[in-house]
Amino acid sequence: MQVRSKAPLRLGLAGGGTDVSPYSDEFGGCVLNATINLYANAFIEENTSDNRVIFKAKDINVTEVIDLNQSIEINGELTLHRAVYKRVMEEFNGGTYIPLIITTMSDAPPGSGLGSSSTMVVAMLEGYRQFLSLPLGEYDIAHLAFEIERKDCALKGGKQDQYAATFGGFNFMEFYNDDRVIVNPLRIRRHIINELESSLVLFFTGRSRDSAQIIEDQMRSIEADDGVRLSAMHDVKQSAYKIKELLFKGNVSGIAKEFLDAWEAKKATSPSITNSLIDEIEETILNAGAVSMKVSGAGGGGFIMIFTDPEKKLDVIRALDSFQGWVQTFQFTTEGAYSWTI
Predict the structure, then answer these.
(1) CATH 3.30.70.890 holds for 190-327
(2) pLDDT along the chain (342 residues), means of 10
(3) Pairing of the two strands 181-185 and 170-175
(4) Residue 159 contacts residue 28 (beta carbons within 8 Å)
(5) E strands within the chain?
C-alpha cells in the first residue's frame, strides 16, 4: 500500500508571535493567517525488503536508514521525521514499528517563514492517519503536531503553523493557556481574495533563518522588558483584530496601511525580527511605490509580504531584481491537509 499526503504552507497576515508561550498563556493570543498553493508533501509505503525504516527528504537531499532492531533516537538531520514516526508507532500502533519508506519534499526551503517545518509534520501525520486508518480529526492532528515539535523535539515556537496547515483557508485563531486553541474559519468573498492576490508580492530574501532561535530571543526580550516590548506585543495582537475586520469589509488598501503599523509593532518586540538586508529591501520597495511590507513568520529572513497598488506591482518586482532572492507566485487556497491511497 502507498499513501500520499500534502499540507499547505501559510502566510501569517497578523498577530504572529502572540501564539507563543508565555504570552498566549497569560494574555491570550490571536493570529490571522491564510494558506497558499505551496505544499509540504509526504509519501508513505511499506518496506518489504527488510526490517528498516527509511526516511528520504528529497528537497534537502538527506536520507536516513534506521534498523528497527535498534532503538530510534530523536536526533540527526531528520529529527522531525524520526519524532513523528516514533510518536505514531508508540501511541497508535501499540509500540510495533512497521518497516516503511517515508519520502518527503517541500515547495519552500526550511526557515522560509511559511511554516514549512510544522507543515511537513502535519503532512506526515496526515499520511500516517490514512495509512493506519487512525480516528484523528483536524484538532487532533494539529495538537499532535504541536506536541511533537514543542515537546518531543523541544523546538521553540508557537501554535499557528500546525493549525493553519491542518485546517487550510483563511482562519482567525485564538490561543489560550492549557494548550486551548480555537480556530475560526473565515468566509472571504472571491473578489476580496482576488484583490489581495493582485496587491501582494511574495519575495524570498534568499536567506533562511532559525525561527526557534528568533522566537526564543523574542520570549527573552519580553520577559526582561520594562514594558515597551510587552506593549508592542499587545499592538501586534490588536492588529489581528483590525486586519480581520478590514478583510471582511474588503478594504484591502486599509489592510496595506495597517501592515505598516503591524510591522513596526512586530519589530519592536525583538531586535532579531529585522536586519540590514530586510531594512534595505523595505527602503527599496517603498521608493518603488509599495505601500507596506512585513516578514512572514518569526522574522530575520525568509519570505516578505509586500503590499502595493496592483498598477505598481511590476515596478516593485523590478526593484527587487537588485537583490539575490526571488518573487514567488502564489494563490490562496481553501483546503487543509489531505491524503489518498494508491
Answers:
(1) yes
(2) 96 92 93 97 97 97 96 94 98 97 94 91 98 97 97 92 98 95 97 97 80 59 70 92 96 94 84 87 96 81 92 97 94 97 96
(3) antiparallel
(4) no
(5) 2-14, 29-46, 52-57, 62-67, 100-106, 170-175, 181-185, 200-204, 290-295, 303-308, 326-327, 338-341
What the block records as the C-alpha cell of 172 is 482567525
What is the widest separation between alpha-carbon atoms in the chain? 62
Query: CA-to-CA distance for 172 and 188, rounded, in angstroms?
Result: 12
CA-wise closest residue to 261 among 283, 290, 293, 227: 293
Q: How is residue 261 written as a grid cell?
A: 503599523
Identify the architecture of domain 2-188 in CATH: 2-Layer Sandwich (3.30)
CB atoms near residue 48 (< 10 Å): 7
Sketch the domain layout of the chain as residue ranges. Answer: 2-188, 190-327
Query: Cell triple for residue 249?
Result: 469589509
Residue 250: name the closest of 296, 314, 186 by CA.
186
User: Does residue 105 contact residue 58 with C-beta atoms inside 8 Å?
Assistant: yes
Closest CA to 239 of 257, 224, 227: 257
324 burial level (CB within 10 Å; 0-12, 13-18, 19+):
exposed
Calpha distance 270→217 (Å, rounded): 7
Which one from 19, 107, 161, 217 is the annotated catalytic residue? 161
- CB-CB neighbours of 325 under 10 Å: 18
Q: Catalytic: 261?
A: no
